Amino acid sequence: MLSAARGHHFARPGNRFWPALHLAGLTPRRLAPEEDRELLRHGLGVTNLVHRPTRTAAELTPEELRDGAAALTDLVTRHRPRAVAVLGITAWRPATGSPRAGWGRQDVSIGGAQTWVLPNPSGLNAHFQLPDLARLYAGLRR
Hints:
Blueprint lengths: L1 H5 L10 H7 L38 H18 L3 E5 L1 H8 L7 E2 L8 E5 L11 H9 L4
Parallel strand pairs: 1-3
Antiparallel strand pairs: 2-3
């Protein structure tokens, strides 16, 4: 909810998204949430699957997630990135109808791009520590 109020992704102090990107080698330094537009300079972008603030993915309906996946497919088809990473398996599975999907690169493609499912860096997902997140996010560099 704080991210929505501030208008920047992963804006809560202590969120591990920004340090994980840097430790994964995806950015040359740790960016602040207010610098999210800088991601474009590094060939990265960030968007929401569903454009409604929630505390957890469990608050989203399957219909919202499926609609969000369709909208993401349209966005990816227009911009043609090499890879897409969805952060959070709880959202990915119902969004794509893939109840057994696991972490990492997926067999399912979004808009023709390599598609990855990676852990959400939220503190609610504490069993993934920062080094784990960085190691998994680094797979996007391949």
